[in-house]
Design brief:
By secondary structure, this protein is an alpha+beta fold. The protein is built from 2 helices and 4 strands. The chain has a two-stranded parallel sheet with strand order 1-2. The radius of gyration is 15 Å and the shape is elongated. It starts with a strand and ends in a 15-residue tail after the last helix.
Amino acid sequence: MPVVTIRIAKGRPVERKRALAAAVTKAVAETLDVRPEWVTLLIDEFERENWATGGQLHADKFGPGCAKADAGQDEA
């Protein structure tokens, strides 16, 4: 029974997380040749003030809307 953990910035809508869960489950099930219901996905969400890259907090680096679809390619 595979368990996958994904860490993302907090703020994405539940629809995005549903799509993520479906896509990851499908990929893992096909790759490992297991039943999809055996795949567990854990999504850890972090406040941007508790996540830093390159010594800079994401709250400062990316500003408001960091985890939103219109934030561009630099989202965490």
